[in-house]
Amino acid sequence: MDRLLIVDDSASSRLFLFKLFESHGFKVYLAEDGMTAIEQYNRYRPEFVISDIHMPNMNGFALAWHLYHRHNQSVTLITSSDTDLLEHDALDADGVDEIIHKSAIAGNLPELISRLPARLLARQVASRTCSALTL
């Protein structure tokens, strides 16, 4: 069973995503901000992380950067309801695999889920390659 960490400061968004992904067979963990997400990540080592951008203590981009540079073993998707941000160059930030408008998640869930294994494999291969090059 794939493990997924959902990070959002909105309790209703966390609950919605929890129910959505749990019904598709994911083991889901929850965090309300980036700092709590790091604790949850270290405890459960999820393969996938879905994080809101705007949160207290640590935003979604900072969380993605942290996970990428400290672990580089999971796929991180960023969610936002800010349409302008979806087209911003900051999407090239380290650790962000994809950004999705919050309103599009439910309608595109089968497609989103189908892309996750390939993204995870690519991340794992890249991580092993980097490790081999530093030896």
From TrEMBL:
Database matches in SUPFAM superfamilies: CheY-like (SSF52172)
Q: What are the Response regulatory domain coordinates in residue numbering?
A: 3-117
Report the Pfam families cross-referenced here. Answer: Response_reg
Sorted UniProt keywords: Phosphoprotein
Q: Which residues form the signal peptide?
A: none
Mark the residues carrying the PTM 4-aspartylphosphate.
D52
Q: Which InterPro entries match?
A: Bact_response_regulator, CheY-like_superfamily, Sig_transdc_resp-reg_receiver
Task: Name the domain of life this protein comes from.
Answer: Bacteria
Q: Which GO terms describe its biological process?
A: phosphorelay signal transduction system
* Record protein name field: Response regulator
